[in-house]
Design brief:
Layout lengths: L1 H50 L5 H4 L11 E3 L11 E3 H16 L6 E3 L4 H12 L10 H4 L3 H8 L16 E4 L10 H13 L5 E2 L19 E4 H14 L14 H4 L1 H6 L9
Antiparallel strand pairs: 1-2, 3-4, 4-6, 5-6
The structure holds zinc ion.
The site of zinc ion (ZN) has 6 residues, from strand 4.
Length: about 280
């Protein structure tokens, strides 16, 4: 009787000892999983840090072809309105995660513009400058003979070549290019989802509403989002090294200095998009 009680007591003790061991094992496993997760998340950052060496003024000003740049990849038609668009690989991976999360919430994100290099931006800018593309229904070459006034009008929504965040491979326009689309219905639902969740995937909105927080720069763009872990580095590079005199090589470039394009437009972004 005595012996069996001791046996039962030992069994109970062993059993009770087993219990705390189980959560300890779980903890050890979850710690290992966390380490693995940390390794996974730190690896791309390490790559980004390495690639920062390639962030030069030539890169910042879009003087390269994304089709042959090793850090860029094509965007699958599943995520875009057409083929032949490019993004940085790191920004693209983040976008795909955001796209999946949005889809799970019934929100469809579609990239309608991504990387545009200097030459592409020059085509857009000069078409507006010389009047072959109308701005607010007007031929600016005829209605705005003053170069600074004409440049400022184009700058409401379009960047001078060399000063666009779309050069960087980090910035995308989503779904539509009109403010009205994002004010109601499907567009509003998308905008509200992005406002609530984009930051979880590293995306910020550089062209927030103009006001005391953002007194200068482009008009508000609810469609333009930026992969901040990389674009933050590029914004900092612009702040320290990009000069108005480097914004050149297109019609109307002579106005960049008097307008202060780098300070007011390149750096005229929301606080969440600066480091
Ligand atoms: Zn844009």
């Amino acid at each position: 009787m005595h012996n069996s009680m001791i046996f039962m007591a030992i069994t109970a003790l062993l059993l009770s000892n087993c219990r705390p061991q189980s959560p300890q094992t779980d903890l050890a496993l979850s710690a290992a999983a966390e380490t693995a997760a940390l390794t996974e998340t730190t690896a791309p950052e390490a790559e980004t840090t390495t690639r920062q060496d390639s962030f030069t003024i030539a890169y910042l000003t879009g003087q390269f072809d994304p089709a042959s740049h090793p850090d860029f990849t094509t965007i699958d038609i599943k995520y875009a309105d057409r083929t032949g668009q490019y993004l940085r690989r790191d920004a693209y991976e983040a976008f795909k995660k955001m796209h999946a999360a949005a889809a799970a919430d019934g929100v469809t994100l579609r990239i309608i513009s991504a990387t545009r290099n200097f030459n592409r931006q020059k085509e857009i800018w000069e078409a507006k400058w010389n009047g072959s593309r109308l701005v607010d229904g007007k031929n600016l070459a005829e209605t705005m003979p003053d170069p600074v006034q004409r440049a400022l009008k184009i700058l409401e929504y379009s960047s001078m070549p060399g000063s666009s965040r779309h050069h960087w491979g980090t910035d995308i326009d989503i779904n539509a290019l009109t403010d009205g689309y994002f004010r109601q219905g499907e567009g509003l639902k998308i905008f509200e989802w992005l406002t609530a969740h984009a930051h979880e995937y590293g995306f910020c909105r550089p062209y927030s509403a103009k006001g005391p927080e953002r007194p200068n720069g482009y008009f508000e763009e609810k469609w333009h989002w930026s992969y901040q872990p990389v674009s933050g580095q590029l914004t900092e590079l612009a702040r320290t090294q990009l000069k108005d005199s480097m914004i050149r090589g297109f019609a109307g470039a002579e106005t960049a200095g008097s307008i202060g394009v780098v300070q007011k437009y390149v750096l005229g972004v929301s606080k969440e998009c600066t480091r």
